[in-house]
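User: Show me a protein chain along with its predicted structure.
Assistant: Here is one chain, sequence first, then C-alpha cells.
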Amino acid sequence: LLADHTGPLALCGASMGAMIALEAARQAPGRVRGLAVLGSTARPESDDMRALRLGAIDLFAQGRVREVLTANVPLAFSPQHAPEVVTDLAQRYLAMIERAGAEQLIAQNRAVMARPDARAHLPALTCPLLVLCGQDDQLTPPECSEELAALAPHATLQLLPRCGHMLTWEQPVAVNAALLGWLARVETCG
C-alpha cells in the first residue's frame, strides 16, 4: 500500500482493512494525514480467537467454506434489524465471502492472526482519527473501539445504534455522514 501510493494518505478501512490502515500509519506516520477505523480493533489476536481461526482454516482447507460462514453470519449483523433485512444482508454477505474462495479466506485469517499490537503507536498519531463501531458489533465489540479512541489524541468515536460489524451495509447513510465530517477535518489539518 505504501509503495503503490506515494505522498500523503487519508486511509479508511473496515475490519481487516482498518488493521491494514493502522499498520500503514505505524510504518509511515508522516504520510498518513487522516485515519478512519470502522468496526475493528488495535489489539493483537487473542489465544481464543487464534484457536477459532485455526479451526476455521482447517475447515476452509477441507472445502467446508459455506458451513463455517453460515455459522458465523449471525455475528456479523445487528439482531435489532427486522428478520427480512437480516435475511437479505446475510445472503449478500455469504455470496461476497464465498466469492473470495477458500485460499483467500485462509490467507486473510493467517494475516489477521499475525497482526501486531497496534495500541503502542496510537498515542503518537497526530492525524484526525475517526473510530466507528456498531453498538451491536459482536466481532469487534464497542470496547475495542473505545480503547482505540482513548489511546489516540485526535480521535473521534462514534457508536452507531442498530448496527453490528457490517457498518457500511447496515448504516450506510450514517457511515457516509461520519466519513464526510472526518474528511473535512483531514482537509483542514492537511
